[in-house]
From TrEMBL:
The lineage of its organism: Bacteria, Bacillati, Actinomycetota, Actinomycetes, Pseudonocardiales. The keyword Zinc-finger does not apply. GO terms for molecular function: endonuclease activity; nucleic acid binding; zinc ion binding. It comes from Saccharopolyspora hirsuta. It comes from the Bacteria. This is DUF222 domain-containing protein. Residues 1-21, 418-464 are annotated as: Disordered.
């Protein structure tokens, strides 16, 4: 271990690197030394946990010793001799840490280290309780930073309670992680500075913003800063929709957190658009409008795209076919100048009574293994209505948005057996292409399997 100290005398400010004397105890040295003498593989589980905790405590104690040295270096203005503009900049270069970390260490060092003795007075730290807890190794610098920030932000009306607040936070830092301690500090702020908290919430509301724009690759980019109330509503709505899907055949949900959040947001939009409470524009509920030549759509001409009216972006005919599985189609005859000449009536491919029957038969999603689907269920035509498939129960199946997309993208085939949907995977998913019963077909399959185990009811005596 090496120490960097300022040498006295005419050359004050020069920094020398020396080896720590062997007779000076170094915090944590004994713990680290004893750990190094044995192989971790030789420890029991309990010993491993104990050693990890011991070393963390030793590191924190050593950090407190470092904070004392930083405070002394700051008082001596060692940074000036090194041509640095501040102790923070000097420490950042010396320890190769980022500026934020350097600033935190200098601030904490100043707060937990006693100031130089005044005549007739004992030295005292600005945060004595935090200093004591740091010296014990029961909390780290992140905890101390939170405590210092809370004390600095106390209103004038609560300054007389600073010692009480600091002691409370230091005590809780012994058993809380920094995140939880920060929540406690915020609660203290709300309790002691209600007017300040209210001003902060008002400022956050005024600073709210949400922007969206279409990137060059056609994806929509959203940037938002929401006040805490709106943010909590957003998280509450998104969280259940972005939860990982249950394991299927032992495989966990492969989506990243970002992809799950994006899928959850898409499901939330579906729910909003399907709500009758949304404001109407021109007498119509909010809806997704796609324009495409009907013959191109019917003939699967993927080189002829459709247009998303809201963003004026192109979309492939294959995805339009997926969207059109459960939507309203408005036939419209256009003239040579692309202006409407005649407008027909809408056709709903899954009327209310059919959707009710499908939900009763399939549940929210009939795909095998989907037991927690987010979003609004979509009625899928087994034989697409564009290809002449009828809009009737035996030609339709309920799917969640995720599995609806998989059916189209991976080209699963669906057949009806005894009034229940059977899903046959493509060879890319299952080389044997073994059909799987879907949705509420599973209970029926279980009933057939268990039929031989259920005893036949006995006929009551005296009954012919």
């Amino acid at each position: 271990m090496t120490n960097r100290v300022a040498t006295p005398g005419p050359s004050a400010g020069a920094v020398a690197t020396t080896t720590a004397p062997t007779d000076v105890p170094v915090p944590g040295a004994a713990v680290v030394s004893s750990w190094a003498e044995s192989s971790p593989a030789s420890y029991t589980d309990a010993e491993l946990a104990s050693r990890i905790a011991e070393i963390e405590r030793a590191i924190r104690q050593a950090r407190m010793e470092q904070l004392k040295l930083i405070a002394e270096a700051d008082r001596r203005r060692v940074f000036a001799a090194q041509s640095a503009r501040s102790t923070q900049a000097w420490l950042q270069s010396l320890l190769r840490i980022d500026s934020r970390e350097a600033k935190a260490r200098v601030q904490v060092a100043t707060d937990v280290t006693p100031a130089p003795e005044e005549q007739g007075e004992s030295p005292s730290a600005a945060l004595p309780a935090a200093a004591q807890t740091l010296s014990e190794g029961t909390m780290g610098i992140e905890h101390a930073t939170i405590i210092a920030r809370c004390i600095r932000n106390l209103p004038e009306s609560a300054r007389h309670r600073a010692s009480e607040v600091e002691a409370l936070l230091a005590e809780n830092a012994r058993r809380m992680c920094p995140r939880d301690l920060a929540k406690l500090a915020e609660r203290i702020k709300y309790a002691l500075d209600r007017e300040g908290a209210l001003r902060e919430e008002h400022a956050q509301h005024e600073a709210r913003e949400l922007h969206y724009a279409t990137a060059r690759d056609g994806m929509l980019v959203i940037k938002a800063r929401l006040d805490r109330e709106t943010g909590a509503k957003f998280v509450e709505a998104l969280r259940p929709l972005a939860a990982p899907r249950p394991e299927t055949d032992g495989e966990k949900d492969s989506r990243t957190v970002g992809q799950r959040n994006a899928d959850g947001f898409a499901a939330m939009v579906d729910l909003v658009l399907d709500s009758d409470q949304m404001p109407r524009t021109g007498g119509q509920r909010p809806h997704l409008t796609v324009t495409i030549d009907f013959d191109d759509l019917k003939q699967r001409l993927t080189n002829t795209p459709g247009t998303l009216t809201a963003t004026e972006q192109s979309i492939t005919a294959e995805n339009v076919r997926r969207i059109a599985c459960d939507c309203e189609v408005l036939p419209m005859v256009l003239g040579g100048d692309s202006l409407p000449l005649d407008v027909g009536t809408t056709q709903r491919t899954a009327p209310t009574h059919i959707r009710a029957a499908l939900l009763q038969r399939d549940g929210v999603c009939a795909f095998p293994g989907c037991d927690r689907p987010p979003g609004t269920p979509q009625a899928h035509h087994i034989k697409h209505w564009i290809d002449g498939g009828p809009t009737e129960i035996n030609n339709m199946v309920m799917l969640c948005p995720h599995h609806h997309r998989r059916i189209h993208d991976q080209h699963w085939s669906i057949t009806m057996q005894r009034g229940r949907p059977m899903f046959t995977p493509p060879s890319s998913v299952d080389t044997s292409r073994k059909p799987k019963p879907g949705g509420k077909a599973l209970p029926a399959a279980y009933q057939d399997t268990l039929r031989g185990l259920i005893p036949t009811p006995r006929t009551p005596e005296g009954t012919p």
